[in-house]
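dumping this here before i forget
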Amino acid sequence: MKFIHSARVACFHLVALSCFGWITFANASEAETIEKLDELVARGFLPHYQLSTVDSDGVRSYRAKAYVDGLVDITEPQPESLFAMLSLSKPFTNLLALKMVDSGRINLDDPIEMYLPELGTASEPGNGAPNSTTSNRKIIVRDLLLHTAGFAQNTELMGLGTIAERYQKDQIFGLHCLNGQEQQSLEAIISKLAAVPLQNAPGATFKYSIATDVLAALLETAAKQPFEKLITEELFLPIGMNNTGFTVPQDKHNNLLALYQPLVKTYPVPGDYQRYQPLSVFKQKSAKVGEQPGCISAGTGLVSSVKDMQIFLQFLLNDMHLESGQQYLTNDLLQSFLSHQLSSHLGTSPLSRSLPKTKGDGLSYGLAIHLQDGGLLTEPDTYDYLYWSGFSGSGFWFNADRTMGGIFVSQLFNSDQFLLPDIAENIRH
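structure:
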């Protein structure tokens, strides 16, 4: 009952599931998976969803469903509808970094202080004590791609502790970009981060963190141009993802899907179970997502569409070949995006240990890796599928043999990865 455990953790206060009985996705067929998703929408547990499958030749299927109950009618999303990617933003920043490695502008083993000197004196480890250095190991670019730099998690998302609380207090990282709080640049975030000790020695542990935003600041410095412009011109436009970015043009605001969050307030329905109030609009002005370019979060700030994600998946399934026939990355770097890269001393399944809602056995330079039963991270032939998802439940996956992949989008804030791995395991052919 894999979904039961995940749902308990990830659904936050969405205990209304217990009123209806648990909906289990484990070992379901594609048709059964769609039926269960439709049921979650009909009962108000999901505001809407989009589900699409893709192979190397293009789109195979697309389905969308939205919640309607006479009180709240949610517009059914379309392939061109724009959604907040949240942590689904991270693989794209990493992919851009690999492109810059490919062109010789940065090196994976470069100390980050070459580009961000203010971070060269960061003390570690945690405990809030300044200059408590216990290791001579420098943070390198590779650490930023793998979340092994030693930065802390943020209490706004997960984890507790003195340093994480500093992140929260100083707004070093978080979701303030999405809900109208103070806007800040990458430069401002780096300046604040430099004043906070590391949580761990660089390379000592995997810890999901602000590393992707630090990476964006580094790329911005190395390329000598704003990160938003850099990733648009060197990644999104060459691939054909014309509706992906940190800003939403005024004429496309109506295409932007609102984020939703679960409520704990119940109300009685005569002759029926005690139901939860329909999911409410997340406390943000959705048209403001990405509208102010002063807040560029490479880890959480992108906006995209299912149509663009279909293009991206097809790009991955075709060995990253562009329409021109040119390969975006050389083969070695392409394989690094598709194979496990964490050091063996970090143990097995570090991603799942740090993020319990995931099912990642390994981590590439941008993706979680799920193994076949008995598979080994050192043997890519035993990989089952690769994926990534975000805090709104949206994500993508593809088979390790790259014969097909899929996209799932649902803008339910705080749902994290609670559905995507199960969907990925069920829709594989």
